[in-house]
Specification:
The complex is a heterodimer. Chain A is mostly beta strands. Chain A has strands spanning 2-5, 10-14, 19-21, 24-27, 32-39, 46-52, 60-61, 64-69, 74-79, 88-96, 105-106, 110-115. Chain A has no helices and 12 strands. In chain B, the strands form 2 sheets. In chain B, strands 2, 4, 5, 6, 9, 10 and 11 form a 7-stranded mixed β-sheet that branches. A 4-stranded antiparallel β-sheet of chain B has the order 1-3-8-7, with no helix packed on it. The chains are: A mainly beta, B mainly beta.
């Protein structure tokens, strides 16, 4: 079984500043993947970034980077140079590789608000 | 490429009724899964279909059932609707066998309200 914990229900950041969204996880799978998704008020889940447990380097995708600390079981999302359009709900999720199903386990989310 | 599309976008049903939600996978994807997202919570996995067979299921009762068709589109059926079934239902597709770990691509969801 997997568990994702996001301890920040809401976060505020000034436009153009960087922000870190926290995520910790727990799993018994030796190999797993970690994901971050963005959900605007429209409801669609937008894939942002992926980190494999076996990856040696932290993942980066444009303004998004994932601060992966395996020993601490944390996978924090860093958004650099925040934009007003970044205001949304952000979900951390994981998937273990031991089963055939590719289901994701999601955290409860962090509502990010970017202030002008 | 065509993304994941879901229909309808909104639906209102009465307790005890049955509902069918539809999803068209992203082109080239062969796996579809469904998630339920209650208000203010993260999505919860319902089940997944691969090659038209269910190959994974979350903690949902049998009145939640599904189908995957040869063109990889899918349906989610919910019988005997309960008030707690009110939620956003998300469909997601991915390509299994592509090597590596491909992310799930989600649709915009169907918002179901049960009164």
């Amino acid at each position: 079984a997997q568990k994702i914990t996001q301890t920040q229900p809401g976060m505020f950041v000034q436009e153009k500043e960087a922000v870190t969204l926290d995520c910790t996880y727990d799993t018994s799978d030796p190999s797993y993947g970690l994901f971050w998704y963005k959900q605007p008020s429209s409801g669609e889940m937008i894939f942002l970034i992926y980190q494999g447990s076996y990856d040696q380097q932290n993942a980066t995708e444009g303004r998004y980077s994932l601060n992966f600390q395996k020993a601490r079981k944390s996978a924090n999302l860093v958004i650099s140079a925040s934009q007003l359009g970044d205001s949304a709900m952000y979900f951390c999720a994981m998937r273990g590789f031991s089963g055939s199903a590719r289901q994701l386990t999601f955290g409860s989310g962090t509502q990010l608000t970017v202030l002008p | 490429e065509t993304g994941v599309t879901q229909s309808p976008t909104h639906l209102i049903k009465t307790r005890g009724q049955q509902v069918t939600l539809r999803c068209s996978s992203q082109s080239g994807h062969n796996t579809v899964s469904w998630y339920q997202q209650a208000l203010g919570q993260g999505p919860q996995f319902i089940f997944q279909y691969y090659r038209e067979e269910e190959n994974g299921r979350g903690n949902f009762p049998p009145r939640f059932s599904g189908l995957q068709f040869p063109n990889y589109s899918s349906e989610l059926n919910v019988n005997a609707l309960e008030l707690d079934d009110s939620a956003l239902y998300l469909c997601a597709s991915s390509l299994v066998g592509s090597g590596g770990d491909s992310p799930l691509h989600f649709g915009n969801g169907t918002r179901l309200t049960v009164t």
